[in-house]
Specification:
Length: about 900
């Protein structure tokens, strides 16, 4: 649907769509802009243009239209007290990490808080009606503008005023009335300054009229009246009409303060401090005209660098002023803005990484660091975080709890960037041409080089607009496994017995049977889901192969003679398997909460898998786990088991559960049903979960972590066993270590014996040598030493490869034998640790032809090593113990043929 068409249609009938009581009562005039033809409502008879085409644009800078001055914190207090006074409930902000929506990573508007997606339908769940909320919203679309334009933020507070028109809520008249009174009564803005502009909103199949309200060209808020569904030719009124008024708190503060930029009044004392630390002369007589020009130009032109050039030209700033004031100020604003966003995101459990929304956070931190480098600003990030949280906690007290966690994550990420920068520099220096989009994706995916870095290094001039879309396409495909389409029309929902008495034997009626599948009227077999593997067991005589859930119908895949429809069958759950899975499942809750308490608040379940005899839990964490981490997590988990804590299961309306327990309940992801099953282990762990659980933590008996592994950036896998599995694991480990101990003992004894034999051998050198020399022909072996005489009578060869001898022995015996027999070559091989050593002697006569040094070289080569020496004595060795005999054979052929 075309927005313009809707607007034309609605503006053609202003009485029906736009005229509210306030306009009548106060005498607002409806006018059409002389420049752009847009319709607007005003009390100022002089005004002929819409606010975005008027000359008074941004004239509040340096000259605010209010008698009162409110900074960011005070502005919220004013807004809140006004709406509370007018019967609204003020609710706390929702997390910026949007855990309740599959399609959004971050919360981008206050209305998102209350949207729940069920199938293809969006429903609204309001914890109160009417209500007001200071919702922190993250938007990364305009990062380039942040710090430069004076009004763009990567995160901002959307004042959400929401109402459903029923007994307690209201519709258009009351809404516009309230917004008008907020501006005039609470903020003291003259009513002639306020202009309402006609507009429309459409999205997700619904649409409605809206009134944007402006003061001096600054859009403060937009009241959207979501009223219809369908398309323009055929639409009807929604069952649930909704008022979605969103206003920027930062702009409310700015209009009352009239500072050169919104940044000057929205970050608290940190801005002033950093400006002073950097030694910038922030003279408002220079800044006010400059930023006013920026704001005006931005309405006329999209190209930011052109906007900047125009503003510099029309205010006549010198290069000196730009370099010493404007550029460093832009950097400071950017740094403060980005850190504020990181504070919210990390506090709510997001981690910088190379995937999903984590990528935006990583990019922001890198922008902070490279801005500091570029401008040679030396700020202490921890100090900035502290001062910001001190200020923000006036509105968001919960940030105090995660102060240290935010510092820890940011410092880890910053030091990681330092080391990756050196690596990236190396890769970039090897690039020989400007990379195209596929090069950029490869550089990012395999080398971790971000396009932002390449832009910073001036390798590319712009990040191609298709880069992020292509990147996310690459990662999208793995998302969902397609489900079989089965003939299930008209079959009623299956009654789930495992949520009730959970009988392990029961009778059920076959409602449908086809191929290898049966559907029962009720079942106690748990279907694959939530990372929990399906039950096994028997339906009649058939073994169960798999069980899946299709909507609310459980389908059993079986093998054997498939029972007939309408038969009643007796069913039996494999209890041993179910108990194993149940213990492992409950253990994932326990390990998850243990990991969070040991590691930090950023730990969330990323995914989980629970089988009968093993399980794994993937958690979000910045680094691989250390041995110490693992020991602590295991101890904490077993502590929870020892405390015998009852596991409580309750059903709640989803909205009630969220309000009561917060969004931590969504560890396993979005719950697409209105009633949620809350599983709580004392107050240690409270999750929405549909799996099977033990009654008391003591039933698990024991948890043992078997292995951990970093499986992707920001995600660590913990593999574990519990119950009998844990006991078996411990027993096996003990046996392994016992048998290892036995082996070690044997080896030690062996070594001692060998040493003893080697000791004794030395004393026997004279006896052995005498016996060997008595050999006059052929071969003789004495104590594993062999003497072979050549038939020619020209050479004799004596050798041993026995480990009963050491170097002292071989040196002693070899020297003695060769002195007695000038034609003898003596060769001793023996193992020493990981090596084989070799000692060779050659007698006076034979050494002239067969040098000991050459022989050692030859043997050492065969053994995979090296050696050498003189003609009469040499030594060497190698590492290949299997080649000892080969080496001897080789040498023997050299000497006696
Ligand atoms: Zn206009
Ligand atoms: Zn569970």
């Amino acid at each position: 649907m075309n927005k313009k068409e809707i607007l034309d249609k609605f503006s053609a009938d202003p009485e029906r769509y736009y005229n509210v009581n306030l306009f009548e009562d106060q005498g607002f005039e409806r006018k059409s802009c002389k420049k752009c033809n847009k319709y607007f409502w005003t009390l100022d008879s002089e005004r002929s243009n819409c606010p975005e085409c008027s000359d008074d644009m941004y004239s509040f800078i340096g000259d605010p239209p209010t008698s009162k001055r409110f900074d960011y914190t005070q502005s919220w207090k004013e807004v809140e007290s006004f709406f509370v006074k007018n019967n609204h409930t003020s609710i706390n902000r929702y997390p910026v990490v949007c855990r309740w929506r599959d399609d959004l990573y971050f919360t981008i508007a206050s209305i998102v808080d209350f949207q729940r997606v069920m199938g293809s339908k969006v429903t609204f769940e309001f914890p109160a009606n009417p209500l007001v909320v200071p919702q922190t919203c993250l938007r990364f679309k305009d990062l380039e503008n942040v710090g430069v334009t004076g009004r763009h933020f990567s995160s901002f507070c959307m004042i959400g005023q929401h109402s459903i028109p029923n007994d307690s809520g209201y519709w258009k008249d009351e809404c516009v009335n309230l917004d008008f009174n907020l501006l005039t009564q609470q903020f003291g803005i003259d009513k002639k300054e306020i202009t309402f502009v006609e507009d429309v909103w459409e999205g997700g199949g619904s649409f409605g009229s809206s009134l944007e309200y402006f003061v001096r060209g600054l859009e403060l808020g937009n009241a959207v009246f979501t009223e219809f569904q369908g398309d323009l030719s055929n639409y009807k009124t929604l069952d649930q009409k909704i008022i979605d008024m969103g206003a920027g708190l930062e702009r409310f503060a700015w209009i009352t303060m009239g500072t050169p930029t919104a940044y000057d009044c929205c970050f608290g004392p940190i801005t002033e401090k950093l400006i002073q630390d950097a030694g910038i002369d922030a003279d408002s007589s220079v800044l006010t005209p400059y930023f006013t020009e920026i704001a005006k130009n931005l309405e006329l032109c999209d190209d930011l660098s052109q906007v900047r050039k125009n503003a510099i030209k029309s205010t006549g700033l010198s290069d000196e002023q730009i370099n010493r004031v404007i550029t460093p100020l832009e950097g400071i604003y950017l740094i403060i803005d980005h850190i504020r966003t990181l504070i919210f995101a990390i506090s709510d459990g997001a981690l910088p990484s190379n995937v999903g929304g984590g990528y935006n956070l990583r990019i922001m931190l890198r922008r902070i660091i490279s801005t500091m480098d570029r401008l040679k600003l030396k700020f202490d990030l921890n100090e900035i975080i502290d001062i910001q949280i001190d200020y923000l906690k006036n509105t968001y007290p919960e940030l105090e709890n995660t102060r240290e966690d935010v510092k820890e994550i940011i410092s880890i990420e910053a030091s990681r960037y330092d080391s990756s920068k050196q690596r990236m520099q190396k890769i970039v220096s090897k690039l020989d041409k400007e990379p195209n989009v596929s090069d950029l994706i490869r550089l990012y995916e395999s080398d971790g080089v971000t396009p932002e870095y390449l832009k910073e290094m001036k390798v590319i001039s712009e990040i191609p607009s298709t880069f992020y879309a292509k990147l996310s396409d690459l990662h999208q495909s793995k998302k969902q496994k397609e489900q079989l389409s089965l003939p299930l029309e008209g079959i009623p929902d299956t009654e789930l017995l495992f949520y009730g008495d959970d009988p392990r034997e029961f009778d059920a009626k076959i409602l449908k049977s086809f191929e290898n599948f049966v559907v029962l009227d009720k079942t106690a077999f748990y279907a694959r889901g939530g990372g929990q593997e399906p039950d096994h067991g028997k339906i009649g005589d058939c073994e169960i192969v798999d069980i899946t859930k299709h909507g609310n119908i459980v389908v059993h895949e079986i093998k054997g003679n498939i029972p007939k429809e309408n038969d009643t069958v007796s069913c039996k759950v494999d209890s041993k398997r179910r108990d194993g899975i149940t213990k492992n499942h409950t253990s994932t809750h326990i390990i998850n909460t243990s990991a969070r308490s040991v590691l930090g608040s950023w730990v969330w379940q990323h995914s989980a898998f629970k089988e009968e005899d093993h399980a794994r839990l993937d958690i979000t964490h910045h680094s691989a786990l250390t041995d110490e981490d693992v020991v602590k997590i295991e101890q904490t988990a077993n502590g929870i088991i020892e405390k015998s804590i009852p596991v409580k299961i309750e059903n709640f309306d989803r909205g009630t559960a969220e309000q009561k327990y917060g969004f931590r309940i969504y560890q396993g992801g979005v719950v697409p049903v209105k009633s949620v099953r809350i599983v709580s282990i004392g107050d240690l762990d409270i999750e929405a979960c549909g799996g099977t659980h033990v009654v008391n933590t003591s039933d698990i008996e024991q948890i043992k972590i078997t292995r951990t592994k970093r499986i992707q950036d920001g995600v660590v896998r913990i593999e574990f066993v519990s119950g009998d599995g844990a006991k078996e694991f411990v027993k096996k480990k003990q046996q392994d270590s016992e048998s290892k101990e036995k082996e070690d003992n044997l080896r030690e004894q062996e070594k001692e014996k060998r040493l003893e034999r080697r000791q004794l051998a030395k004393e026997r050198i004279p006896v052995i040598s005498k016996s060997l020399l008595e050999c006059k022909q052929g071969t003789v072996t004495i104590d594993n030493i062999t003497m072979e005489l050549a038939e020619s009578g020209k050479a004799n060869f004596c050798y041993s490869t026995s480990d009963d001898y050491d170097d002292v022995f071989h040196i002693g015996l070899g020297e003695k034998l060769c002195k007695e027999d000038p034609k003898l070559v003596y060769c001793g091989l023996f193992e020493q640790g990981e090596k084989v050593r070799v000692i060779v002697y050659a007698g006076e006569e034979i050494s002239k032809e067969k040098s000991a040094g050459e022989i050692v070289k030859n043997i050492s080569e065969v053994l995979g090593g090296a050696g050498g020496g003189s003609p009469k004595f040499a030594q060497g060795g190698g590492t290949d113990k299997s080649k000892k005999e080969d080496a001897i054979k080789n040498v023997k052929s050299m000497i006696i043929q």
